[in-house]
C-alpha cells in the first residue's frame, strides 16, 4: 500500500477548503438564479417596503396578454418587460422580493374579489365605484379613456356614432358607456378578451373596437396601416392595481406606487415602453364625446 507524503491533518484542511469553496459557489449561483426581474432595470432601496405574498420571495401578478408596451410577449413564459411588467419588477425589488411570477386569471374572475393565488393585478383596470364594492384598488398609476379603433378609411364622426356596431370586452366600463351615452341602434357585442375583439373587427363582424386609448393606439401602429384610431371618448378614467378585499398589502402597494411616481420611475417606463409603441400622444387623439 502506497502512503501519501501529505499529513492527514493537511489533507483534511485542504478537503474542507474545497468543500466550502464548492458550497459557496453553489450558493452564489443559486442566489443569482433566484433574482429574476426579466429585462427590467430595478431601482430604489431593496426591502424598503414589506409585502406579505402568496409565494414567499416573489410577487405574483395577474397581467394581460396582447398589449405590447405594457406586457411584451405572447405568453406568461415569454413576457420579460413592458411598462406594467417592469413596474411590478420594481415593486418586487423594493419589497425585498427576488422575482415576479405571472398568474393567469380571467378578467371576470379577478373582478369577483374571490380569485386566489395572486398578490395584485396590474392589467389596465379602470377604477370604478361599483368595482370598489367588491375589490380594493391602489392609488391610480395611469390616466386613461376609451379609444375608437376601426379599419382604415372607416368614416366616424359624432353624427354616425349611434349607427356603428361596437365591440367591447366583457366586464369593462366601455359597455355601459356605449349604451348610456352613445345609445347605439345595435347592442355592443361582448368579447372575453382584446384579441377576440380585434379578430371580429378584421372579419367585419363589428365596425369599431372600444378599448383603452393607449392599447388601441398600439394595435393600430402595429397593423401596417390596416387599422386606425379615429377618436376617443374622454371618460376621465384612471387605472389602479387590483387586490382582494382581504389583502394585507393595500397600504404597502400604495406606498410603492407613490414612490415610483415621485422618483420618476413611472415616467421613465412610459418614455421607454409606451411612447415608442404608441406613435402618438393619447391626449392628442380627437374627442368624440356625443
Automatic annotation (TrEMBL):
Segments forming domain Ionotropic glutamate receptor C-terminal: 64-276
SMART domains, alphabetized: PBPb, PBPe
Signal peptide feature range: 1-33
Cellular component per GO, a single term: membrane
Domain Solute-binding protein family 3/N-terminal residues, every copy: 78-277
Classification via Gene3D superfamilies: Periplasmic binding protein-like II
Record key words, sorted: Signal
Pfam families per UniProt: SBP_bac_3
UniProt entry tagged with the keyword Transferase: no
GO molecular function: ligand-gated monoatomic ion channel activity
PANTHER family listed in its UniProt record: ARGININE-BINDING EXTRACELLULAR PROTEIN ARTP, MEMBRANE-BOUND LYTIC MUREIN TRANSGLYCOSYLASE F
Protein name per the record: Amino acid ABC transporter substrate-binding protein
Taxonomic lineage of the native organism: Bacteria, Pseudomonadati, Pseudomonadota, Betaproteobacteria, Burkholderiales
